[in-house]
């Protein structure tokens, strides 16, 4: 089966541009916007040669993994549009739950995930399985004119392979025992995106999105360490606020709101250095 949009996505006017291999789906989507594309365009590929993650980090996607980007043309404020990253996380989580049988994504001791979600969302833009990174989300924007900008919502998923030389645990659907290909996952993702986008409702439904995201949040209530501009802030992960900032309570009881940073859980969060 080749890449296809879900019927719900097609009915809502989304379009598809599929490739066997690309440099970067985000870069290609932004190029399409500069060429005049009206948006609601999914750019997908089974292989990505020069993708990017947060802070310019490389995000390679070997053949069989999913590299996808949704291009939207936005005429609202960028701050509100940035919360679509949380919509993307929810959509991917919903898609994974829909296509991966319940017996997979079990914990190492065979007991399963006792928290109720096999796939968790790590602030601001990762999807985890059993604490290991399986997917990343990257939003990039480009001004088109005085009133509009292009927003590329990149979603990369380790379907058949995961990177070995990274400083954090990683996994793939194949490693979890799931018999799923990139095309099947994308079909479910395009359907789940439409549903969550409707809930977001041009930003008016952000509180609902926030509550849904928190129900899947990794590390909620536990110790975290957040690296912010070279400094490390430690505390307990309390919530995300109405602007989707990461909120932690430090040792003094003060609530700290963090707009951007790298989050670490577990042993790293408890260590004296990170």
UniProtKB/TrEMBL annotation:
The keyword Ligase applies. It is an enzyme of class 6 (ligase). Its EC number is 6.3.4.15. SUPFAM superfamilies: C-terminal domain of transcriptional repressors (SSF50037), Class II aaRS and biotin synthetases (SSF55681). The keyword NADP does not apply. GO terms for cellular component: cytoplasm. Keywords: ATP-binding, Biotin, Ligase, Nucleotide-binding. Gene3D superfamilies: 2.30.30.100, Bira Bifunctional Protein, Domain 2. It holds the Pfam family BPL_C. InterPro entries: aa-tRNA-synth_II/BPL/LPL, Biotin_CoA_COase_ligase, BPL_C, BPL_LPL_catalytic, Transcriptional_repressor_C. Transmembrane segments: none annotated. Residues 8-201 form the BPL/LPL catalytic domain. It comes from the Bacteria. It catalyses: biotin + L-lysyl-[protein] + ATP = N(6)-biotinyl-L-lysyl-[protein] + AMP + diphosphate + H(+). GO terms for molecular function: ATP binding; biotin--[biotin carboxyl-carrier protein] ligase activity. NCBIfam families: birA_ligase. This is biotin--[biotin carboxyl-carrier protein] ligase.
């Amino acid at each position: 089966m080749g890449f296809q949009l879900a019927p719900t996505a097609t009915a809502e006017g989304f379009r598809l541009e599929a490739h066997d291999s690309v440099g970067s789906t985000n870069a290609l989507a932004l190029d399409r916007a500069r060429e005049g594309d009206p948006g609601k365009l999914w750019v997908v590929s089974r292989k990505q040669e020069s993708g990017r993650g947060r802070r310019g980090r490389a995000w390679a996607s070997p053949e069989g993994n999913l590299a996808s980007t949704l291009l939207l043309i936005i005429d609202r404020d960028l701050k509100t549009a940035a919360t679509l990253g949380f919509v993307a996380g929810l959509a991917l989580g919903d898609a994974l739950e829909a296509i991966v049988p319940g017996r997979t994504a079990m914990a190492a001791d065979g007991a399963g995930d006792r928290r109720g979600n096999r796939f968790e969302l790590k602030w601001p833009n990762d999807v985890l399985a059993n604490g290991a990174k399986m997917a990343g989300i990257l939003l990039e924007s480009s001004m088109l004119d005085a009133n509009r900008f292009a927003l590329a919502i990149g979603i990369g998923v380790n379907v058949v392979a995961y990177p070995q030389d990274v400083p954090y645990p990683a996994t793939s659907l194949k490693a979890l025992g799931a018999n799923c290909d990139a095309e099947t996952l994308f079909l479910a993702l395009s359907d789940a995106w439409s549903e969550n986008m409707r809930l977001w409702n041009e930003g008016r439904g952000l509180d609902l999105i926030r509550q849904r995201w928190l129900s899947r949040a990794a590390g909620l209530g536990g110790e975290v360490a957040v690296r912010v501009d070279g400094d490390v802030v430690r505390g307990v992960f309390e919530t995300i606020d109405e602007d989707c900032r990461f909120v932690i309570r430090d040792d003094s009881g003060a609530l700290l709101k963090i707009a951007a940073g790298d989050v670490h859980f577990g042993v790293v969060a408890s260590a004296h250095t990170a």
